[in-house]
Design goal:
The chain is mainly α. It is built from ten helices and four strands, in the order H-E-E-H-H-E-E-H-H-H-H-H-H-H. Helix 9 crosses helix 10.
């Protein structure tokens, strides 16, 4: 091989290695994204990200967009204080079906984009086509090296819901007030005013108020009883809300769901047969 060809080959190899090292670069990262029968396209997702997401989450996905400082503080008349936009470079996500500390599966990110996050300025993006949302998932994954280096955790299998009986609600109340001491953050009556509430911080050191069940009409990560069960068992990474998977069994988790629903005076169960739309 001639000297010029060797030099050219080495330059091409060096350029390829540099591309692999660039944070947020879709080049060189085999981050296959699939939701249902749809395959995500990170290049297309990048274009849509710059149109819909960059203002809050920033060019680098670090949550430092030019609008970031304007989407924190009181949210739509609720007592909640909306946090700063998500820093995707950390690979840390609240809404997951996977164990605490693990990466979410593609469907988790798709669902978050679709429904938005209640009590924050992250809106629902159901107005976008399913393909566009899956493309956005593909691009968001390029911001964190975790998606290249790690596999997502195994999605939680949710068992059938137990009967919602007075006994189940009483058991849930005992768990809330005594066993798990949920009241320390959420308050005795679920107002989010527990003795620890004012001290709570997220993973970046920002104040983060506990959820007020009496004002809530849905949760950050869903609407259904199954969604609430999932939150108990996986936790909300990046927040003080832990996973309780090692402390309660399935029956106890459903008891806690049933009790918390008694605190949610504004909650209206979805109509029979109504389900979250899924990509096909």
């Amino acid at each position: 091989m001639s000297l010029s060809k060797k030099i050219t080959r080495r330059l091409m190899l060096a350029a390829f290695c540099i591309a692999l090292a660039i944070p947020g670069s879709a080049v060189g990262q085999d981050l296959a994204t699939h939701v249902g029968s749809i395959t995500g396209d990170a290049a297309a997702g990048k274009r849509d990200y710059r149109r819909f997401c960059v203002g809050c989450h920033g060019e680098l996905g670090d949550g430092k967009g030019e609008n970031a400082n304007f989407v924190v503080g009181p949210y739509n008349g609720f007592q909640y204080s909306s946090p700063l936009p998500r820093n995707f470079t950390l690979g840390l996500f609240k809404c997951r079906s996977t164990p605490s500390g693990t990466l979410p599966v593609d469907n988790d990110l798709y669902d978050t984009i679709s429904r938005g996050i209640f009590t924050t300025y992250m809106p629902t993006w159901r107005s976008l086509t399913p393909k566009t949302r899956v493309d956005l998932v593909a691009y968001v994954k390029t911001f964190s090296p975790r998606f290249k280096d790690e596999k997502p955790g195994e999605a939680l299998k949710i068992p059938p819901e137990t009967p919602d009986t007075p006994e189940s609600r009483q058991s849930g109340k005992t768990l809330y007030l005594t066993t798990l001491k949920c009241f320390e953050c959420h308050g005795n009556e679920g107002h989010g005013d527990g003795p620890s509430a004012a001290t709570l911080r997220d993973n970046l050191g920002n104040p983060i108020p506990p959820f007020d069940f009496t004002e809530g009409i849905r949760f950050k990560c869903g609407t259904t009883n199954e969604d609430l069960y999932r939150i108990f068992m996986t936790g909300l990474d990046g927040t003080p809300m832990p996973s309780w998977a090692d402390f309660v069994n399935a029956s106890q988790a459903w008891d806690l769901v049933h009790y918390l629903r008694t605190l949610m005076v504004h909650y209206h169960p979805p109509k029979a047969g109504a389900k979250e739309p899924k990509a096909k």
